[in-house]
Design a protein that fits this description.
By secondary structure, this protein is an alpha+beta fold. Helices cover 30% and strands 25% of the residues. A five-stranded antiparallel sheet has the order 4-5-10-6-7. It has a four-stranded antiparallel sheet with strand order 11-12-13-14, with helices on both faces. The chain is globular, with a radius of gyration of 18 Å.
């Protein structure tokens, strides 16, 4: 790596001010940024650690909405939302390994928007709202493509608000070394319809499978998906699997998620 300064603000306001400095970058759990620094793929002059900001940590639930602080670790989510949103807790408990789950944060994952990350699928399928240091952004408007979001320079995710569905499940076909999703499907059933979000498959990152949503909103059963498929065009091909293979997995995993839900 190379030399850089680290600042550890105690409040969101101080963090935003620090990020206003030239060549400053936010540091959440560091599960992506630190490896990037080691490979010299990122070169900030200042790292603004969010780890000491207590106001962006923790879990609360009120009126059918689950609120998770942006600095809350995956491990905490897995433990503390098991009774209120079991599908989200199970997903968080299967991210990476214990070291990753005890350092990585929900805000960091969403801000990074890795095309194979799990949280983007959960947020999009749940119709979540991403709360930042200066506004609220609907999940449908937040994810803009590969490692790209609606976040502006210096904007920090302070919380994520999840409407709690009637039924939900997340099924991930994981790459065994990284435990990232080769394909992951999150299905959430609400009173007014079903949302289905897919991660790990598209060249543009997480997306909603609207055709499946329409079918499942009329009949929430795996059989409702018979004959439906996602076109392979625009899906990723790499050493782990072809676009056609990923397209097949989306159908299989969506049926499994519905059955599990």
């Amino acid at each position: 790596m190379y030399s850089f300064d680290v600042v550890r603000p105690k409040s969101v306001a101080d963090a935003v001010a620090a990020l206003g400095e030239e060549e400053a970058q936010a540091l959440g759990g560091g599960q992506t940024l630190i490896p990037s620094l080691k490979q010299r793929l990122a070169a900030p002059a200042v790292l603004v650690s969010l780890a000491s900001i207590d106001e962006i940590k923790g879990v609360s639930s009120e009126g059918g909405t689950l609120k998770i602080g942006g600095g809350t670790t995956h491990g905490t989510v897995a433990r503390e939302v098991a009774s209120s949103y079991p599908a989200l807790a199970a997903m968080a408990g299967n991210i990476g390994d214990p070291a990753v789950r005890n350092r990585g944060t929900i805000g960091g994952s969403l801000a990074n928007n890795d095309p194979a990350a799990c949280y983007p699928a959960a947020a999009l399928a749940s119709g979540a709202t991403i709360v930042t240091s200066n506004r609220e952004i609907a999940a449908d408007d937040f994810f803009e493509g590969l490692f790209t979001t609606a976040l502006e320079e210096g904007e920090i995710i302070t919380a994520v608000q999840f409407p709690i569905p009637e039924k939900a499940a997340y099924i991930k076909f994981e790459q065994p070394a990284s435990r990232f999703a080769l394909v992951g499907v999150f299905v959430a059933k609400f009173a007014d319809g079903v949302r289905v979000a897919v991660t790990g498959a598209s060249e543009d990152g997480v997306f909603r499978w609207t055709e499946a949503e329409a079918a499942l909103s009329g009949d929430f059963s795996a059989a409702a998906l018979d004959g439906l498929s996602v076109p392979a065009d625009g899906l990723m091909t790499d050493l782990h699997g072809s676009a056609a293979y990923r397209a097949h997995l989306i159908g299989v995993l969506t049926k499994r998620a519905v059955a599990q839900a």
